[in-house]
Amino acid sequence: DGCFFALGAASDVSFNAVVLSVAFLREEVGNDVLTVVGRAQFLGSACLMSLLFLLALRNPGGMVQSLTNQCRWLTLAMVYMLGLDLALLVIALTGAWRLSVGMLRAMLLLNGLATGGCQSLVGVLAGLMTKFGGQPTSASAQMSGMGFGISLPTALQLALMMTTVSVQRVAGLSYALAAVVVSFGLFALLHLRSTAELRRCEYGGVDELTGTPGLAAALHRNFGWWTLARLRHVGWQSVGLAISFAATVYTGLLTPHVPPSGLHPPPQQLPTLLLSTNNVCDFGGRFLALRVLR
Predict the structure, then answer these.
(1) How confident is the model at residue 209 (pLDDT cuts 50, 70, 90)?
(2) How far is CA 281 from the centre of its chain?
(3) Residue 6 and residue 174 in contact, taking contact as beta carbons nearer than 8 Å
């Protein structure tokens, strides 16, 4: 479970560290910073996750049969996120060069692709181990890790907001923390690939992992039906969630344009405060829903 917690956290901590460093990036690209960041990261993430879902729907067995390649792509994605965190760390702390809007868009588009790929591929691994690998809480550990990846940069920004630490140093600390989390994710993946369960699945598929010949073929036959049935079950809830999420993103994009007034928080930190408040309330809503459903 520790491995999947680390992988879940690594899959989205860089994404959120960038979004919450809006005060620093605003100095680099202006008031449209969240539009630039949002379009690049969300476009990359959503497109790749949708593509992987369609590929899985078309060839369900391929997601398991190509497990070795998936681990390689997952490693590549996390290495890119680690490199991005370190590059932004150097820029924030040294001011060695300014980011152009085009450069930032390209970097964050790739980060969105890496984030979407990580979340999807870690989800495949977690689902596999939860269902067939004798680790029934792997998926829960992954989701908890993703929550940690959101809350960690949020907590850092809120803790330092009322101090005299400059926005550049706060952003640098956020990127450094994200780099540490992604590094733990890489080590977790290396450890996971050395486990007997994953090695059996890499070389022999689900049949070898479970000791049940023909299971992979049965999954392949029924995957499309199961997926469509599941979509019917959660369809209306998903529409409501999509509308709520769209409204949240839209209002978030407007935060740099809110006219500043007063001294607390400092005007340049207002968008960070509003975004952090949204993250805290989002986490509280998820936790409350979990307690109620229990």
Answers:
(1) low
(2) 18
(3) no
